[in-house]
TrEMBL record:
Residues 1-152 form the VWFA domain. It comes from Pocillopora meandrina. This is VWFA domain-containing protein. SUPFAM superfamilies: vWA-like. It comes from the Eukaryota.
C-alpha cells in the first residue's frame, strides 16, 4: 500500500507458488471509500490458490515495489518520510524457510500481518511483521470481518495523510 495526502495507491499481490500483481487501484479520498475498497479486495481473495505458500516471494515483490516507488519519490523530492504499508494476509506458513529468513524488509516499510487459516504460525508472523492482527482466534473460529477490517484500516490514518483531506 502506498499512502499519501492526495493519492493512495493500492497494489494487490497474490502469492502461492509465484507472486503476481492482481490490481493497481486508487483509493477514494473519503475514508468510507477506502474501507469499502479494502473490504471488496478481502472478499475477492482467491480460495483456489495452489496450496504452496511462498510468503517470501509475495513479500519480496511488495518490498521491491516499495523500494522502486521510494527511489522515484526521492528523485522527485516528494513524499520524503512518508509511511509505506504492506498488509499481508497469511497463516504464516512459508514454503521456503531459508529464503524467508534472509529476506530484508526495507526500513521505510511497515508490515502488518493478518493471521488467518486453520493453523497459524505465529513465529514467522512476528518475524516479518511490525504488527499482527489475528483474524482467526486461538480456538480456530474467526472474528467478525467488520472488526478485523476496522483494525486494519486504523493503520491507514497516519498523519499527514488524513489531516490535509479533512478526514
Amino acid at each position: 500500500f502506498f499512502v499519501s495526502p492526495y493519492k493512495t495507491r493500492l497494489d494487490l499481490i497474490e502469492f502461492g507458488r509465484d507472486a503476481e500483481y492482481v490490481s493497481d487501484l486508487k483509493f477514494s479520498q473519503k475514508r468510507s471509500g477506502r474501507q469499502q475498497l479494502v473490504q471488496q479486495l478481502i472478499g475477492h481473495m482467491s480460495d483456489e490458490l495452489d496450496n504452496i505458500t511462498n510468503l517470501e516471494k509475495g513479500l519480496k515483490k511488495a518490498f521491491d515495489a516499495h523500494e522502486e516507488y521510494d527511489t522515484l519519490q526521492i528523485t522527485k523530492n516528494d513524499r520524503t518520510g512518508a509511511k509505506n504499508i504492506v498488509v499481508v494476509f497469511t497463516d504464516g506458513k512459508t514454503h521456503n524457510q531459508s529464503a524467508m529468513s534472509s529476506l530484508q524488509k526495507p526500513s521505510s516499510v511497515i508490515v502488518i500481518a493478518v493471521a488467518l487459516g486453520l493453523k497459524i504460525f505465529p513465529d514467522v508472523l512476528h518475524q516479518i511483521a511490525d504488527d499482527v492482527i489475528y483474524w482467526t482466534k486461538e480456538d480456530g473460529s474467526e472474528r467478525q470481518e467488520s472488526e478485523v477490517l476496522q483494525e486494519i484500516m486504523a493503520n491507514f490514518d497516519f498523519k499527514p495523510c488524513g489531516k490535509e483531506l479533512g478526514l
